[in-house]
Structures are given as C-alpha cells and as structure tokens.
C-alpha cells in the first residue's frame, strides 16, 4: 500500500460567486482499521484563508504547525494577513525544501484574495502548484472527486448552491472509496462570514 | 501481540495493557508493567519495541517533571500529548521510535482526556482507543458497549469484556493484564487480571 493511502483522506475546494467552499471527509484510519470519525483535515490560517492537508496524517499535522508558525511570524512582521497566492508560494517552497525526503501530503489551499476574488490551488507532495478556476481535489478519493466535480460544477454559484454542489460531490465520491468517508466537513466562505457545516453520509 | 486499550468515562480515564514481555517465541516475563505513571494525573500506556518503549516513555516522564520543576506548574494533558508527538515526529525521519502510545490524563479545568499517538506521530484526541492485534477485538467491543459518561463500574465491566474477548479470540493472547485509572484523585493502579502467575524464585 502506498504511504499516501496509509490514513485515507478526501479533500475538495470549489469556487463560487465571490465565495469559495472547501470540504473534507472525517475518517482517520490506519490502513484497513478506522481510528476516529471526527478528524479535522481543514485548518483556518486566517479568516479568509483555509488549508486542507490530505495524505499522511502525521506529516499533515507537522506541516500545519510549521505553516501556522510561518504565518504568525509574517503577521508580526507585516502587520497584516498573508494573501492566498503568497501562502500558496510559501507552502510550495516548504514542500520543495524536502525534495529528496518529502512530506507525504497533498495540500489544498482556498482563500479570498484582493477584491474578494476567490483563489484555490492544490499541489503535489513536492510543491508543484496547480491553479484552477473551478475546483481542485486531493486525497485517496481524488479520481472519483474529479468526475463528480466536473459533472456537477457550474460557474458563479451562490453560497447556498455551492454548498449543495460541494456536499453532493464529496459524499458521492467518498462512498466509492473505502479509505475515506464517515461524514463530511464543509466550510463555505464569503467576504462577510464563514459557515461551517458537518455532513452525515454513509457511516462506513 | 501487545494489547493496549483505553477509554474515557465520567470524570476519569482508564487504560489497560497486557503484561507479557515477549521475544520471538519466548515469554521472558508475564508481569511487565507497560503503563507508566507520567505525573500525578497522567498515565502513558505504551506498546511496541521494548527498548524504545522504556527509553522513550522514561524520556517523556523526565521532561514532564523538568517542566514542572522549571515552571512550578504541571503540564496539561494536551500539552504533554503534543510534546510527546513532537518528540516522535522529530525522531521519525532520523531514528524513529517504534512505540504506540495512549496518553490518559485528568485536568481540573477540562476533565479527563485520552490521546491516541501512534509510532509515526499521528496525534488524535479520542474517547476510546486501542493498539495491537487486540485492537480488532477491543475496539469492536467498545464500539458496541461504550457510551459517554460511564461510571467506573460500567467501564471496568467493559474493560473485562474486552479482555475476555482478547483471551478467547486472539491466537497468541497474552494471559495477564494491568488496569490503571486516572481521575481527580490522581493516577493509580486499579487492578490486575491474571490467568497465569509467574512462579516465585526460590531464595538462595
């Protein structure tokens, strides 16, 4: 079994009209065994920037701690929050530093940039950025997620419709993947508020 | 074949571990205590490579004591768990410790808690957790019978059910178990469950 499939994960981020949604599954497993059904894969960096980390859970935790530290230092020096584009560059640089002994993670970054323009991107475990205008996916269920998102996505969705689309795409994809699932965690972020919702899907 | 499991009840946390020290097909002793009392209100139940287990848990115990000497107050359970994870994560890509840990503690402000820390430094706060081949049986028993806010009697009953299951269904089941509890009155040994007693050594 691949090291990326040791813990199991599913992540998706989608762009809407002046908003974005980022969603993950909730399973933490050790190969075939499920350890917990309330694992947080998405973390808030600041009010308008969220980071999801799929792949090996220990590296996701280490990477999150390092990135949070770097962002706090940035806030002290610059006296402002990091832009999503800048943060994506930081993540990419941190991952490439370990080019020949990498972190086994695939991050998904979603944020609101200048003029509230939504920004999403993903990268591989050595920091190769993949910017997208519509959606990005990561994790063991990524192939299913690509298909589900491609068919369900529409341009300029309002937050409520975006939430429905992301939720349906996530749940239908993790249902086809034994290593991810046990519900979903969805964040819908607009310039004025962040809505966090927990989904109940097939609990297996 | 090492079995470690634990759960959180109403104002207490309980951990149980088998007590056999095994090398290949030989059982060196069957009264090896694998649950270390970290400080007055914390227990660390460890399973894995025996040298690493003893060395690593003693290292954590001494560092927790050092913090208390330096700062005059003890570490919270969450802080101790994160420290342990940090040490495992730092060592992971240099000289990994093959030790799986269940850290149980009681804090005045937050009550009892149980942390699952596996050997590759994945940290998660859980209500019930287990390691080893025995986990296939004890986790299922706990999934069936556990509910939040159990009394000590109910929890011990569940622990005994898990031990019975391990004894009857695991092919190389360890004969003896030790149970330790931590609550507002501190961390202490609760009971042993022995089915094979070590023969006493005749004095010279």
TrEMBL record, chain A:
PROSITE patterns per the UniProt record, alphabetical:
PROTEASOME_BETA_1, PROTEASOME_BETA_2
Extract the SUPFAM superfamilies matched here.
N-terminal nucleophile aminohydrolases (Ntn hydrolases) (SSF56235)
The family annotation for this protein states: Belongs to the peptidase T1B family.
The protein's name: Proteasome subunit beta
Pull one GO CC term from this UniProt entry.
cytoplasm
The taxonomy runs: Eukaryota, Viridiplantae, Streptophyta, Embryophyta, Tracheophyta
Q: Say if the entry is tagged with keyword Cytoplasm.
A: yes
Q: Which InterPro entries is this protein grouped with?
A: Ntn_hydrolases_N, Proteasome_beta_3, Proteasome_bsu_CS, Proteasome_sua/b, Proteasome_suB-type
Keywords of the record: Cytoplasm, Nucleus, Proteasome
Where does the UniProt entry say this protein principally localizes?
A: cytoplasm
Give the function comment from the record. Answer: Component of the proteasome, a multicatalytic proteinase complex which is characterized by its ability to cleave peptides with Arg, Phe, Tyr, Leu, and Glu adjacent to the leaving group at neutral or slightly basic pH. The proteasome has an ATP-dependent proteolytic activity.
Location in the cell: Cytoplasm; Nucleus
According to the record's subunit comment, the protein's assembly and interactions are: Component of the 20S core complex of the 26S proteasome. The 26S proteasome is composed of a core protease (CP), known as the 20S proteasome, capped at one or both ends by the 19S regulatory particle (RP/PA700). The 20S proteasome core is composed of 28 subunits that are arranged in four stacked rings, resulting in a barrel-shaped structure. The two end rings are each formed by seven alpha subunits, and the two central rings are each formed by seven beta subunits. The catalytic chamber with the active sites is on the inside of the barrel. Component of the proteasome complex.
- Give the GO biological process terms: proteasome-mediated ubiquitin-dependent protein catabolic process
Q: Which organism is it from?
A: Durio zibethinus
Which domain of life does the UniProt lineage start with? Eukaryota
Write down a Pfam family by its short name. Proteasome
Query: What gene is this protein translated from?
Result: LOC111312277
TrEMBL record, chain B:
Q: Which UniProt keywords apply?
A: Cytoplasm, Nucleus, Proteasome
Give the species: Durio zibethinus (Durian)
Q: Does the keyword Nucleus apply?
A: yes
Its protein name is: Proteasome subunit beta
Q: Which cell locations does it reside in?
A: Cytoplasm; Nucleus
Q: Name one GO cellular component term.
A: proteasome core complex
GO terms in the biological process aspect are: proteasomal protein catabolic process
**Primary location class:** cytoplasm
What PANTHER family does the entry give? PROTEASOME SUBUNIT ALPHA/BETA
Q: Which InterPro entries match?
A: Ntn_hydrolases_N, Proteasome_alpha, Proteasome_beta2, Proteasome_bsu_CS, Proteasome_sua/b, Proteasome_suB-type
Quaternary structure note: Component of the proteasome complex. Component of the 20S core complex of the 26S proteasome. The 26S proteasome is composed of a core protease (CP), known as the 20S proteasome, capped at one or both ends by the 19S regulatory particle (RP/PA700). The 20S proteasome core is composed of 28 subunits that are arranged in four stacked rings, resulting in a barrel-shaped structure. The two end rings are each formed by seven alpha subunits, and the two central rings are each formed by seven beta subunits. The catalytic chamber with the active sites is on the inside of the barrel.
Q: Which family does it belong to?
A: Belongs to the peptidase T1B family.
Q: Per its UniProt record, what PROSITE patterns does this chain match?
A: PROTEASOME_BETA_1, PROTEASOME_BETA_2
Q: What gene does this protein come from? A: LOC111306653
């Amino acid at each position: 079994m691949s090291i990326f499939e040791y813990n199991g994960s599913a992540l998706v981020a989608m762009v809407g009209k002046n908003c974005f949604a980022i969603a993950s599954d909730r399973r933490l497993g050790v190969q075939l065994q499920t350890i917990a059904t309330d694992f947080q894969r998405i973390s808030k960096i600041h009010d308008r920037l969220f980071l999801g980390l799929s792949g090996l859970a220990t590296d996701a935790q280490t990477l999150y701690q390092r990135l949070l530290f770097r962002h706090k230092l940035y806030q002290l020096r610059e006296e402002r929050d990091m832009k999503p584009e800048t943060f994506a560059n930081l993540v990419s640089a941190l991952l490439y530093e370990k080019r020949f002994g990498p972190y086994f993670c695939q991050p998904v970054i979603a944020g609101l940039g200048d003029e509230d323009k939504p920004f999403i991107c993903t990268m591989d475990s050595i920091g190769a950025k993949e910017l997208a205008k519509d959606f990005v996916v990561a994790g063991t269920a990524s192939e299913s997620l690509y298909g589900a998102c491609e068919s369900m996505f529409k341009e300029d969705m309002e937050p409520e419709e975006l939430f429905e689309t992301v939720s349906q795409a996530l749940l239908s994809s993790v249902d086809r993947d034994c290593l991810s699932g046990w519900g979903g965690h969805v964040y819908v972020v607009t310039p004025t508020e962040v809505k966090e919702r927990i989904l109940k899907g097939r609990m297996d | 074949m090492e079995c470690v499991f634990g759960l959180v009840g109403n104002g207490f946390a309980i951990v149980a571990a088998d007590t056999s020290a095994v090398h290949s097909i030989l059982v060196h002793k069957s009264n090896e205590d694998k649950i270390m009392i970290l400080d007055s209100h914390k227990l660390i139940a460890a399973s894995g490579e025996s040298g690493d287990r003893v060395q690593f848990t003693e290292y954590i115990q001494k560092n927790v004591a050092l913090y208390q000497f330096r700062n005059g107050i003890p570490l919270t359970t969450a802080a101790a768990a994160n420290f342990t994870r940090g040490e495992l994560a730092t060592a992971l890509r240099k000289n990994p410790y093959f030790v799986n840990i269940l850290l149980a503690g009681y804090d005045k402000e937050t009550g009892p808690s149980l942390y699952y820390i596996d050997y590759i430094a994945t940290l998660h706060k859980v209500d019930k957790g287990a390691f080893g081949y025995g986990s296939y049986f004890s986790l299922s028993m706990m999934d069936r019978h556990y509910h939040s806010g159990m009394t000590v009697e109910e929890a011990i009953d569940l622990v005994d059910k898990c031990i019975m299951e391990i004894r009857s269904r695991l092919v190389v089941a360890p004969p003896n178990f030790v149970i330790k509890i931590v609550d507002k009155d501190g961390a202490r040994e609760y009971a042993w469950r022995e089915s094979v007693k070590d023969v006493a050594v005749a004095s010279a």
